[in-house]
Amino acid sequence: MALPAGSTVSDLLARLDMPTEARSFTFINGEISAMPGLQPDVNHVLRDNDRVAFFDPHSMWPFQYRHGIAMIGEMREAMTGSRDQGLHTVYKK
Question: CA–CA separation, 79 vs 91, rounded Å?
Answer without folding.
Answer: 20
